Amino acid sequence: xxxxxxxxxxxxxxxxxxxxxxxxxxxxxxxxxxxxxxxxxxxxxxxxxxxxxxxxxxxxxxxxxxxxxxxxxxxxxxxxxxxxxxxxxxxxxxxxxxxxxxxxxxxxxxxxxxxxxxxxxxxxxxxxxxxxxxxxxxxxxxxxxxxxxxxxxxxxxxxxxxxxxxxxxxxxxxxxxxxxxxxxxxxxxxxxxxxxxxxxxxxxxxxxxxxxxxxxxxxxxxxxxxxxxxxxxxxxxxxxxxxxxxxxxxxxxxxxxxxxxxxxxxxxxxxxxxxxxxxxxxxxxxxxxxxxxxxxxxxxxxxxxxxxxxxxxxxxxxxxxxxxxxxxxxxxxxxxxxxxxxxxxxxxxxxxxxxx
Length: 356
Ligand code: ADP
Ligand code: CIR
Hints:
The protein is of the alpha+beta class. The chain has 12 helices and 10 strands. The protein has helices at about 1-20, 25-30, 30-40, 50-60, 75, 80-90, 140-155, 175-185, 195, 240-255, 295-305, 335-355; strands at about 120-130, 165-170, 210-215, 220, 230-235, 260, 265, 280-285, 305-310, 320-325. It has an 8-stranded antiparallel sheet with strand order 2-3-4-5-1-8-10-9. Strands 6-7 form a two-stranded antiparallel sheet. Helix 1 packs parallel to helix 4. Adenosine-5'-diphosphate binds near residues 233, 282 and 309.
């Protein structure tokens, strides 16, 4: 009965998608042939269906991607759909490719992107990690959320030096405190409709929270889109130092807990855009001349494999001319190469702005 209901809901949603003018990668790659091949399939352990993968993109026709993996097995069971989407987003990572081993690289080659503090307001590097033995959001029980949070609270108590800080669970924060932290770009927002439709916000706010060091330059998000988001950020453009701090954090956590990693996809994440290195290195940057024409900014960014987001993150608009510009691909290249791609592109953008 469950499968018949799923099948009907899926058929209806697929029809709406095909008739829409959605620009998502989901619409581009979910052909009738692939749809027919996958619509009866389920993952072996968690019994996730095609509907579980695509419901966010089908409910939000303005999605850029439109698909999430409800559990790690979904990447292989629904490979005929995930593979072309992954290849498109990560620019040529084909089913024959494998993600390289972890390589943080030589940090001394990463520079201050804006030593005169003319353009860059702040820089942030984040990575995502899933904890081995747990599924992704849509398949997690309330106990899973509580267990992961408890495990992390214990680990946080052992962080020292620059990483030393405090864990704040959402359940013990006022709305006002949360809003303040969101406005200041530290905390994840609540009620993301893309995540909600993907069933990633169940039992909210249970198990969700943020760890922050004293000066809020090192942060860890717990149980938002991924089990962990490990973040380093500070004002200015000192990319090398910001990256170094994130690496220290990752290494400290890794001593206490195992992360899910696959030979083909590297570190596993809920959204296929984050697979591999999972790294997004971003600058909050003001380039008024270059961005006087948004299309021109987008074109320059694309040429350098960068992505432009708004001031409050993905799916938001630019405020007061501030853009969030980051590396787009994270899979099929090393951690260092992802950082270098961001550095080279941002330096080029600054050079262009200077010359205008
Ligand atoms: P993610 O980086 O986790 O993919 P978002 O695009 O939603 O997700 O961004 C999360 C938050 O991080 C948002 O508040 C965003 O404004 C903030 N942010 C991203 N890059 C920077 C930066 N360079 N400086 C300050 N805040 C940033
Ligand atoms: C979309 O398709 O636009 C959303 N599902 C977000 C996709 C990529 N972002 C992400 O992983 N945070």
